[in-house]
Amino acid sequence: MSGFLINADDMEAIATGGAFLGTGGGGDPYIGKLMAQAAIAEYGPVTVIDVEDVADDALCVPVCMMGAPTVMVEKLPNGQEAREALAQLEAFLGRKADALICVEAGGLNSTIPFAVASATGLPLIDGDGMGRAFPEIQMVSFTMQDVSATPMVIADEKGNSSVLNTISNVWTERLARVQTVQMGGSALVALYPMSGLQVKKSILRNTLSLIREIGQTIASEKASRRNPAEALIRRLDGKRLMTGRVVDIERRTEGGFARGTATLKGMDQDEGSTFKVHFQNEFLIALNDRDEMLAVTPDLICALDADGGLPVTTEQLRFGLAVTLIGLPCDPQWRSEAGVDLVGPGYFGYAQTYVPLEELPNGN
């Protein structure tokens, strides 16, 4: 069986890489890193396995946080919710899980599964359902392969939990979102229980290896006193969208999401230009001062602190912060008609039509 072990020290790179690939969303990576490190210190390292090593009849379950990332900064999980959600789902299904899955490659949700995997002794599959982060439950590659999000268990830090069974993954999002809001804006969930065969058909492969590599690249570049932006652009076939300083930030928590717009004044080679980036938990669309798209969902918009070189999440955006926005091409699954319908700009209410990153203009 191929695979590799993840120790507590490895979580630094994984949290950093997940924060970058998470396009500003997925929750605070610092919280998830601490949860995973504490679990590994108590229970031992996590085995990450290749999806081809999963038996076709295995039961595989994603575990993740649901809600507004801004809430998680103040309403910390107690560490038991995700394990409780998994245990209740196993009880409902009448069998134990054989492997765990990251639902997205972003921040908290790229690290929480490591905490649960360590505590349960279950392996974690090298892959996820997004290749980035998206704000809604149905926005995963599993949906495109007709995998049901339910039965799903949702649990909070107070001990409340419930089991959902729905007629579609969109209805799962609607009903679970209401419960998440009532639970204080964030909760932990176990959902999309699927067979190993379904995982092989639907998962976006090797993204856990990728986020670890991204985190290692960022650490290496910073150690060499270089901003990681150029190294990441080369490695990930991306492009620099702009570098600027936040001059205005409008943010609100609404319907279980952190929504808003940041306005940035260009600096360095972008001096004299202004830019806007809109987000709903994640960065979704970047525009220049002529309202031309620089990048748009489902392609990735990733932010790095222009001074420190670390990833910036949407809840960390603040007046005066200098950031470099980097555009990355999304997984080919998302560029299909079904993918754009599920996570393209039209779904989020933008008037723009999806155009691949490589066909859009440069920043200024």
Automatic annotation (TrEMBL):
InterPro entries documented for this protein: S-Me-THD-like_C (IPR048350), S-Me-THD_C_sf (IPR024071), S-Me-THD_N (IPR010318), S-Me-THD_N_sf (IPR027479)
Domain S-Me-THD N-terminal per the UniProt entry, residue ranges? 9-165
**Source superkingdom:** Bacteria
Residue ranges of the TM segments: none
The record's annotation in Pfam families points to: S-Me-THD_C, S-Me-THD_N
Task: Please report the stretch or stretches of sequence annotated as the S-Me-THD-like C-terminal domain.
Answer: 168-357
Q: What is this protein called?
A: DUF917 domain-containing protein
Q: Which organism is it from?
A: Flavimaribacter sediminis
